[in-house]
Design a protein that fits this description.
The complex is a heterodimer. Chain A is mainly alpha-helical. Helix content of chain A is about 70%, strand content about 0%. Chain B has a domain at about 100-335. The N and C termini of chain B lie far apart (about 65 Å). Classes of the chains: A mainly alpha, B mainly alpha.
Chain lengths: ~80, ~350
């Protein structure tokens, strides 16, 4: 049972990196998960797909710069300490 | 007071050189202050009067302090005498104050200022941690704890699961047995770690880092569960007043069942473990579903009336999934300890 906090941190960093790499134009539009596709009506609450699309877009917007810093720190630490 | 201490020490015939000298030194300082006070009090009566009193009080305090230290050393006096009057520990090693002592002395000396900080709250902490809300979760008493534990292990006959409100804020756990608290989960988590160490030890599988591994693994699972519940709540767009701390509390309640299962497994073997764990899994499942039903589902559905609609169905599935995750995690986190 080696599921430690450190592995949780590693996994989360990798997942956030993966989400940040999904390109809006080249990929998500073709799948149908673009940010301007199927927003739906105004009064109704959005479905799961719309929420997911919003989540992906907000992660990409928010985490772009911090991810650069986090990735650099992780790379340096892994190089130094293995 | 100084004379009395001197006499008792002389009676026992023990000598505590340095500290008795310190006492004498403070006596001299006090004499000097008294003379100074008597001299100055003619010139500027009010100011020197007050200063003189302050010096007197300090002098008394310091004299008492040094006398007391002399007395304390007297009790370990045999050893100090043998080692030439220096302070020695039990095994004759010189007691090193070191960094820990330095840290402790700084902490103690800044003690009065900590209370001011705690009262007003450091500004950065108030921004990131809702300290005021946190205090609400620890406002428990033993009656509440007893009732809540009984509820956790036998939730089948409890009639009313609604949290009582008091002008828009939920009532403190002390007054309502349905309110979530953080005391029980925290204590249960620590007890689980200790029991895990015990279980590993009885099977000769113990090592100090394995305990740390169990602790961090349990913490990681807890965090993962809370984060996934938060994510699923966001995706299903449930507008609820469940805070992340509430979810942490609900996730921590399963540790009570895990402790019972572990204890049964340690005392009664595999059969006892499975029996106790299945009972605790069932009760934790029912407890979670009944508590979350009121918070996640709409009013009508919570009453028990089946409401049509994809939204409510989705919420029902979500509640059931959260409830089902509890027994799974309970089994997963305890089975590897009782191999």
């Amino acid at each position: 049972m080696a599921f430690t906090l450190y592995s949780l941190l590693q996994a989360s960093l990798l997942i956030v990196n993966a989400v940040a790499v999904l390109h809006e134009e080249r990929f998500l539009r073709h799948v149908g998960w673009g940010s301007d596709q199927g927003i739906g009506g105004f009064g109704e609450e959005p479905g799961i797909k719309a929420q997911l699309t919003n989540l992906i877009r907000s992660i990409r917007t928010v985490m772009r710069v911090p991810l650069i810093a986090l990735n650099s720190i992780t790379i340096v630490l892994l190089l130094l300490f293995g | 007071m100084g004379k009395k201490w001197e006499k008792s020490r002389r009676e026992n015939g023990k000598k505590c050189g340095k500290n008795r000298k310190m006492g004498k030194k403070w006596e001299k300082i006090r004499e000097k202050w008294r003379k100074k006070k008597a001299k100055k009090i003619g010139k500027k009566p009010e100011k020197w009067g007050k200063m003189g009193e302050k010096w007197e009080k300090n002098g008394e305090k310091n004299q008492k302090k040094w006398e007391k230290r002399g007395n304390m050393e007297k009790n370990g006096g045999k050893k100090s005498r043998k080692n030439g009057g220096k302070i020695r520990g039990r095994k004759g090693k010189r007691r090193e104050v070191g960094w820990a002592g330095l840290y402790w002395s700084v902490l103690v000396r800044t003690g009065p200022y900590w209370s001011i900080l705690v009262r007003t709250g450091p500004p950065q902490l108030c921004r990131w941690l809702p300290v005021g809300r946190l205090k609400y979760y620890f406002a428990v008493d033993s009656v509440y704890v007893g009732r809540k534990l009984r509820l956790l292990l036998f939730p089948f006959r409890h009639p009313d699961w609604q949290v009582r409100y008091q002008q828009d804020t939920p009532v403190a756990p002390r007054f309502d047995v349905n309110a979530p608290d953080l005391y029980i989960p925290a204590m249960a988590f620590l007890t689980y770690i200790l029991l895990a160490g015990l279980a590993l030890g009885t099977q000769n599988r113990f090592s100090p880092d394995s305990l740390g591994l169990v602790a961090s693994s349990a913490l990681a699972w807890l965090l993962l569960e809370v984060l996934s519940v938060l994510l699923s709540l966001y995706l299903v767009t449930v507008s609820t007043d469940l805070t992340p701390i509430d979810l942490l509390a609900f996730a921590g309640y399963k540790y009570v069942g895990m402790i019972v299962g572990l204890l049964a497994g340690l005392l009664l073997g595999r059969a006892g473990y499975y029996a106790a764990l299945s009972w605790c899994c069932l009760s934790s499942f029912i407890f979670t579903i009944r508590t979350l039903r009121l918070k996640l589902l709409s009013e009508a559905a919570a009453e028990g009336v089946p409401v049509r609609g994809a939204r409510n169905q989705l919420r029902m599935y979500l509640t059931t999934a959260i409830g089902a995750a509890q027994p799974l995690l309970m089994y997963w986190l305890t089975s590897h300890l009782l191999r």
